[in-house]
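Action item from last meeting closed. Structure (412 res):
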């Protein structure tokens, strides 16, 4: 904690942890009193021993107007605290506790439960460390108790990992959730494992209403490169066919736009369209596509997978146009992982219908050497974004992206 302590002394601030239930919250005070809260997000709320995510996220809530120096100091404080908490996380192989994460989805906040950290793939930009501990069954059951109180009868719980399908406990966990009244699930998966007969139907019977399938390339070699795996492409395609042949549930193909797939996005969409047409079970337009971007953790871990969005924009536009022509439904560019709307030719078609929380977004100035990012954390936009008609419905880009590529691709 030495860097944090030094900073507090330098600034004349004090830091304390707010007791009581709810997310772990730190309060920062100066001689006039408490002026800021730092709230732990993304699965870390119960304390360092419950860590699932590889990086901590502290949401900053200022209680009064802050000058630039204070904001920079708070960013530094937040970063130091994150490093401290990260050093206290369990080592690989240890048992860890399940925590629910709340993520900005395209229709509101999604509650997401990671049931395992194990995975049969190794996507370079993945933000979940595959071998970091085992999530205990007891803690998953305890989390389901809490979720059963939070979720309404029509709400869906997002089940994720790791790869949930590699966890043999998955059917029992879904049944256990159902017994508590949670009856609808969105399954985030790479779908490898759904190629076997009856696998899809079994999950649908257990309440899976939507399959959110990561399928980042239609080219086997690129697929292997992105997913750090060998020979799983045919299984993934077979699984997609099975999914597209059934009905009574939704299917979204999640395509993380990156350095290795962006040039062929349009062909990727044509491939998906052909696949959907070859399967008789689905109505036209019922396959959805979500174009997403690598998050800050992934970009920090694997910057080589990042792509300058200014360069990727024409390929994204072409891919969206193919979707429109071929009857693939493009999901709104409106969730935490969404690409900025200004990359599109007709952004209003894909904008969120509601304002998104902007508390993690900083507006930064640019000079000829690039955006001024010193001390900035979270997500960033250009100052000119304030003039953008989509400002309230856009979360900009992760600061890690801006450090790699600048912000010149964002144009109101
Ligand atoms: S607010 Fe900025 S980043 Fe977002 S769509 Fe507008 S110009 Fe692009």
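Sequence:
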């Amino acid at each position: 904690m030495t860097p944090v302590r030094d900073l507090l002394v330098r600034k004349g601030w004090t830091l304390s942890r707010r007791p009581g239930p709810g997310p772990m919250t730190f309060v920062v005070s100066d001689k006039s009193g408490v002026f800021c809260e730092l709230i732990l997000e993304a699965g870390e709320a119960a304390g360092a021993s419950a860590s699932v995510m590889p990086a901590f996220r502290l949401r900053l809530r200022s209680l009064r107007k802050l000058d630039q120096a204070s904001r920079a100091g708070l960013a530094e404080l937040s970063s130091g605290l994150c490093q401290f908490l990260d050093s206290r996380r369990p080592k690989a192989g240890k048992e860890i506790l399940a925590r629910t994460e709340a993520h900005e989805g395209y229709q509101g906040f999604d509650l997401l439960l990671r049931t395992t950290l194990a995975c049969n793939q190794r996507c370079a930009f993945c933000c979940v460390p595959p071998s970091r501990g085992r999530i205990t069954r007891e803690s998953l059951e305890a989390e389901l108790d809490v979720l059963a109180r939070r979720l309404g009868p029509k709400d869906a719980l997002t089940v994720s990992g790791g790869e949930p399908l590699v966890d043999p406990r998955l059917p029992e966990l879904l049944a256990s959730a159902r017994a508590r009244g949670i009856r609808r699930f969105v399954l985030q998966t790479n779908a490898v494992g759904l190629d076997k007969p009856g696998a899809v139907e079994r999950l649908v019977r257990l309440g899976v209403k939507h399959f959110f399938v990561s399928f980042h390339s239609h080219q086997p070699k690129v697929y292997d490169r992105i997913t750090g795996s060998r020979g799983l492409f045919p299984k993934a395609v077979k699984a997609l066919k099975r999914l597209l042949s059934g009905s009574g549930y939704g299917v979204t193909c999640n395509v993380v736009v990156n350095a290795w797939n962006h040039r062929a996005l349009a062909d990727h969409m044509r491939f998906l369209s052909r696949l959907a047409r070859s399967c008789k079970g689905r109505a036209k337009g019922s396959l959805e596509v979500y174009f997403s971007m690598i998050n800050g953790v992934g970009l920090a871990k694997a910057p080589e997978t990042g792509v300058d969005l200014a360069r990727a924009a024409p390929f994204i536009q072409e891919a969206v146009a193919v979707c429109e022509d071929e009857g693939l439904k493009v999901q709104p560019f409106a969730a935490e992982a969404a690409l900025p709307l200004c990359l599109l030719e007709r952004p209003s078609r894909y904008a969120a219908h509601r304002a998104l929380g902007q508390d993690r977004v900083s507006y930064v100035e640019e000079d000829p050497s690039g955006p001024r990012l010193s001390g900035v954390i979270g997500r960033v936009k250009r100052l000119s974004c304030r003039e953008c008609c989509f400002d309230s419905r856009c979360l900009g880009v992760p600061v890690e992206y801006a450090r790699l590529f600048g912000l010149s691709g964002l144009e109101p």
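Note appended to the action item: The chain has a mean pLDDT of 86.
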